[in-house]
Amino acid sequence: MTTTLEFARFVRETDYEDLSADVRDALKRRVLDSVGIAIAAETDASTRIVDRTVAELEADGPCTLWGRGRRASPVQAAMHNTALTRYLDYMDSFLAPGETPHPSDTIGAVIAAAEYAESTGEDLLAGLAIAYEIQGELAWNAPVRDEGFDHVTHTVIAAAAGVAKVLGLDELETQNAIAIAGTAHNALRVTRTGGINEWKGIASANAARNATYAAMLARNGMDGPRDLFEGQKGWQDVISGPFEVELTPGERVHDVMTKRYVAETYAQSAVEGVVELAEREDVDPDDVTGIKLETFAGAKLIIGGGEGNRYEVENRAQADHSLPYMLAVALIDRDLSLTQYERERILAADVQDLLRVVDVTANPDLTERFEAGEMPAIVDVTMDDGTTYRVEKDAFRGHPTDPIGWNGLEEKFDAVAGEYLASGERDELVERIRGLDERNVSELTALLA
To answer: Which residues form the MmgE/PrpD N-terminal domain (predicted)?
Structure first.
């Protein structure tokens, strides 16, 4: 049975030197992806609510609030900056059979703590490797979705571990930090069921804030229930059941996908497929009478109607968790980017009409393939003359079997954040992230201010 001490020792014993060159490179790409998304999210209403709240609570501090030209405590910076990296639903995802969390939800917290601790880039990469590894191992071995808990229940533990590393906590303090975070902050799955609301995009920021605060408390001597996982009425007893982890320095980062489209994780293959089909067959949306998607059970559950009505779509939060909306708008526009989540586009008659002829079914064979590592999708588009076009996908560009390298990530960065940066600023930021282990963290955050 996994113990809290096992996690704490992994945190203490993992250093930059333990990371392979491939892991270091992959972590830097995760930072670039997250920073680009954050820049594009600065003007959204929900991230501005977080910003206003932070401003009301703190006028200054040691940590950078990205994009705002202000500073705050590491706790509030973790909240603010994670809201930016997460809100657009364009972040990375870890693919496990029973859980799909977003390890990049830990990046804002670990960077804030590293800036506070005046850490080197090497220290930061070690902290991120730990956070990614723990998030992935928990998702794979101890999924919580079916028990009614949200995946940010994993995030708060992973982020606390990464923050503990860059703050330099000793083994006992690290154990306390993980214990406090994991005991006190178990989020309910209702966040992503029924009528989706704006909290969906902010819940992980709250987890990042709580993780950072837990680590700060432990740093200052607070004891926690150090038998968090294994104790009576502890995490395994109440939430996950018994499980074992196999922690290696950062290798789980290779199991993380990059989103090609602005869409929920499980929609990526289906969206890529319907865009390819529309372009291949030069489909006229006005002539479409039906769109049928065969997918795996998790996709049907989360974004296909298993956890609430996905045909009533009125806002961004509902749209990016509705397979009917995403497939309809992607077929019409032959794209699914930030433009497709503007309120006027969501409410437009063409997409509202077309989404109602989308049928989503779970195929047991596709579920088996998903659990074996694919992300399969079969899309049939039927025209008013009876013709049916089909596309079948095993995965998508950005899946761990078809990863996006530096060139592709820089293209994504330019597409999502390019309009907000002068060319010199863009090049300096990319160069700084590529050479992250040769710099201090403050040199990166200075560019993000």
So the answer is: 6-247
